[in-house]
Amino acid sequence: MYKINDNYQKLPGSYLFSTIAKKVNAYSEANPDKKIIRLGIGDVTQPIAPAIIEAMHKAVDEMGHAETFHGYAPDLGYEFLRSAIVKNDYQARGCDITVDEIFVSDGAKSDSGNIQEIFAQNNRIAVCDPVYPVYVDSNVMAGRTGTYDPETEMWSDVIYMPCTMENNFVPEFPKETPDIIYLCLPNNPTGTTITKDQLQGWVDYANKNKAVIIYDAAYEAYISEENVAHSIYECEGAKTCAIELKSFSKNAGFTGVRLGYTVVPKELKCGEVSLNAMWARRHGTKFNGAPYIVQRAGEAVYSEAGKTQLKEQVAYYMKNAKAIKQGLRDAGYTVFGGVNAPYIWLKTPGEMTSWEFFDDLLARANVVGTPGSGFGPSGEGYFRLTAFGSYENTLAALERIKML
Amino acid sequence: MYKINDNYQKLPGSYLFSTIAKKVNAYSEANPDKKIIRLGIGDVTQPIAPAIIEAMHKAVDEMGHAETFHGYAPDLGYEFLRSAIVKNDYQARGCDITVDEIFVSDGAKSDSGNIQEIFAQNNRIAVCDPVYPVYVDSNVMAGRTGTYDPETEMWSDVIYMPCTMENNFVPEFPKETPDIIYLCLPNNPTGTTITKDQLQGWVDYANKNKAVIIYDAAYEAYISEENVAHSIYECEGAKTCAIELKSFSKNAGFTGVRLGYTVVPKELKCGEVSLNAMWARRHGTKFNGAPYIVQRAGEAVYSEAGKTQLKEQVAYYMKNAKAIKQGLRDAGYTVFGGVNAPYIWLKTPGEMTSWEFFDDLLARANVVGTPGSGFGPSGEGYFRLTAFGSYENTLAALERIKML
């Protein structure tokens, strides 16, 4: 008789954004006349840039002719895309990363969910709290997190690194030594980040403790300050301790196009075993490449026209971020983020919990945000708004919030 | 100190098709003047059908305008695609499958590699031998297969169901009772299949023994005989014991477009636990949907024009299959398959092993095939050729093989 993976049964409730979608749909059906503004899920709204649209049309045409048709992609991704990534995202920043260290995928969500598979079950993971829920959830599914305490909303075997107002949202080295450290910087959801020196501290800590860092740089394109690293490989020694995850979703609006990549340096070894070889094996066995059309779209991100157009797109969202931050401040809220990230992180007013504020905002302002507690226990009492709406909707949402 | 998943170290050698690619590249570099014909990897060569190209262009245009832009897709896939699947692949065949039982993915390789995650580690799996290597390899990575014996090339905890000339390539109920049964029908690599009555026998067996069947129907479009099921849900009782995997790679040439789906019926339950809910949770946590453009391409597969064009495409490949089968027979080979599948399965001549025949064929005829032993120990002494080449190349390859 077959048995299920009962770690799944340990997961409390459903995935955060599925829950939000259900709540919004229910409200919407009950109140069909209300115009809801969504600043909840981190989904972009601006159309794909013209240079990328052009590249996709060209690739679609190629697929329609036998001489230019493309079947299965190379295991790690097309050379044209991996070269563009290496040149623009690494060599241009002085990082010595090579083409065979780049693994093209269908997005950073898949990679951040799957990367834990190449590690043993008995590793202790450490996560910033609050943070993107996939890190913990995927480790729960793998049986790596112990038991869940509904009271504290914490897992017995997860090391939480609280990031709150009290420590300026900067994680501190934990008391217990972790084996795998997830860092998402700029952070989702707090929108804050750390300096390059502080990141160097984490690299040194990982090397000293023989821990591995899973570095999620999905929001790298939104960094505006000088002393912030765009890649962990800007830090010395990172190649022996860090895996970097990158997404095209936020810098190029690819949430519905689906493309990402993971960097696993060849120097990253556990004893004699190369993690690069392990991830290559995982890719070769359980994945069949990102679509050719999408990989060509990714290449166009790095074209001169693409770069110019995407710089404007990022600036558009950051204008929203600025407007939200200022607007909320004017309305008396305590706000963070929005400088190096498209997320605004606010303290819920009074004694309201995150979900209470979510319900209130949905019912009275018809604005959807994301409850901070959905990102971890230390997110309780906070709330996330995204800058990914249209400028008009963003201003309209602010007007409604100010009226509360 | 972090530890790796050492199940990966148990995997012998690299993934079959990576090994073949390396061998062919090495030969090609050493013999740049030789024109190699590839009938090895099951990759298609015909361009994407016009109706699908048109749909993709339209979807690319939509992505370029704010009003029609699409961000994150719904967790399980777009309703328009899931409805088309239900209507054409199930309702039209009298199978009572509903939209919320369909999970759209980036392809059947991902799904067949990932589906084992929702099961406990201590399940015994049974596989046809030979078969598509991903079933066993993904279970090795999960630590479900015991130890490997290099002598027999078998895993201690895997139940092998030999499919050879002696039993007409039809798997028999194993002596030990399995928990999870992988069936790929029509079979890759043997190209053979079983009757609907025989499949009903497997469904009854699974229900009686509380086993679950992972049914890979990737080659369903190539079925030409009357009494063969196109879906396992044509059998009575399949909804309480079977998960079905489907691919668009072979029926629509999507190997480089990437689209597939999995059916997990709501009636499939382990005690009180719904496997449909588990797979939904996995999808929601570790996957972010297939690209919008690709899902629109999938929809076009079911349009009237799409259906007509793809019927021609399948016929084109089956004409190749017929030519290969007849040509090899004329040359004195013992051949199977090619009637309900695009694969020809042949007995290697004399006492040659599969890899010896591979090397010989590459060196003397410059034709690439796939060694049968790469699909499992009972594949030793057999060899797979695919009908996915162009007609011209297929005939040219046959001429060369006949000259050996």
From TrEMBL, chains A, B:
Pyridoxal 5'-phosphate binds at residues 72, 108-109, 132, 188, 219, 247-249, 258, 288. It catalyses: (2S,6S)-2,6-diaminopimelate + 2-oxoglutarate = (S)-2,3,4,5-tetrahydrodipicolinate + L-glutamate + H2O + H(+). SUPFAM superfamilies: PLP-dependent transferases. InterPro entries: Aminotransferase_I/II_large, DapL/ALD1, PyrdxlP-dep_Trfase, PyrdxlP-dep_Trfase_major, PyrdxlP-dep_Trfase_small. Its cofactor is pyridoxal 5'-phosphate. Substrate binds at residues 15, 42, 109, 132, 188, 288, 384. It comes from the Bacteria. One of its GO terms (biological process) is lysine biosynthetic process via diaminopimelate, diaminopimelate-aminotransferase pathway. CDD domains: AAT_like (cd00609). Keywords: Aminotransferase, Pyridoxal phosphate, Transferase. Residues 35-401 form the Aminotransferase class I/classII large domain. Pathway: Amino-acid biosynthesis; L-lysine biosynthesis via DAP pathway; LL-2,6-diaminopimelate from (S)-tetrahydrodipicolinate (aminotransferase route): step 1/1. It holds the Pfam family Aminotran_1_2. Its EC number is 2.6.1.83. The modification N6-(pyridoxal phosphate)lysine is found at residue 250. GO terms for molecular function: L,L-diaminopimelate aminotransferase activity; pyridoxal phosphate binding. Involved in the synthesis of meso-diaminopimelate (m-DAP or DL-DAP), required for both lysine and peptidoglycan biosynthesis. Catalyzes the direct conversion of tetrahydrodipicolinate to LL-diaminopimelate. PANTHER family: AMINOTRANSFERASE. Belongs to the class-I pyridoxal-phosphate-dependent aminotransferase family. LL-diaminopimelate aminotransferase subfamily. Homodimer. This is LL-diaminopimelate aminotransferase.
